[in-house]
Amino acid sequence: MYYDFIHQHKQQFKIAGIAFIVLVVWWGIATFVDQNGKIPVVVSVVPSDATVTFNGKSEGNGTHYLPAGSYEVTVRKDGFKTETEQVIVTGKKQQNVVAASLTAESTDAKKWAKEHSDDYAKNQAYGAIEANSNGSYFTAKNPITTKLPYNDPYFTIGYIVNKDQSITLTVVTPSPRYRFYAVQQIRDLGYDPTDFKIMFKDFHNPLEQK
After folding, report:
1. CA nearest 123: which of 133, 135, 131?
2. I need a surface site. Which of 24, 50, 89, 186 has the fewest CB within 10 A?
3. Which distant-in-sequence residues (6+ apart) come within 8 Å of 167 by Cβ?
4. CB neighbours of 20 closer than 8 A, spacing ≥ 6?
5. pTM across the whole model
């Protein structure tokens, strides 16, 4: 009986098979084109139905393929505190991960958070991956930070982090003389001062009239 049924509908089965193969091939090509040249970014947020936007475009939980660049990532859900962070998506990171665990503010949200404490605990693993990956990327991009802050009796060299994960060196000294020595110390650490933006703090120009 089954043989007769298949034999009678052989043409339909053949057409359906071809259509399925075409659909799979089309899906594969579309996926490749969409992901080609982009970088996988794993997004893990709690609550999982929170709204996640990259530069205003909604992405949500899961793995997304994005062009390299800087993104303002905002995670929000009614009853919870909204979180916003600047994220650098780059192939130079070991992994691109965005992890956020929203803090409950409303009574209902606090009740939900208490009932889903396991979700928060599990998301800590993604937070650790994000922190380690970002830390390694930052250090590789700014190796001088491994030698800072540098403290001398007459000056201190530190740094501040910019939105693009570059740094601005800071030199704190009231003395024009030790301002020069601080710049020289950057050379002694093995770096060219002209490669950095340098901000001088607590510096007083001796030519200024009081």
Report:
1. 131
2. 24
3. 142, 144, 145, 159, 160, 161, 196
4. none
5. 0.71
HSE-CB for 154 with a 13 A CA cutoff: 10
Strands (E), 55-166: 57-58, 62-66, 69-76, 83-89, 96-101, 150-152, 155-161
Q: What does the alpha-carbon distance between residue 93 and residue 89 come to, in Å, rounded to a whole number?
A: 8
DSSP string, 165-207: S-EEEEEE-S-HHHHHHHHHHHHHTT--GGGSEEEEES---TT
What share of the chain has pLDDT > 90, as a percent?
72
Q: 155 and 179 in contact (C-beta within 8 Å)?
A: yes
Residue 19: what pLDDT? 45
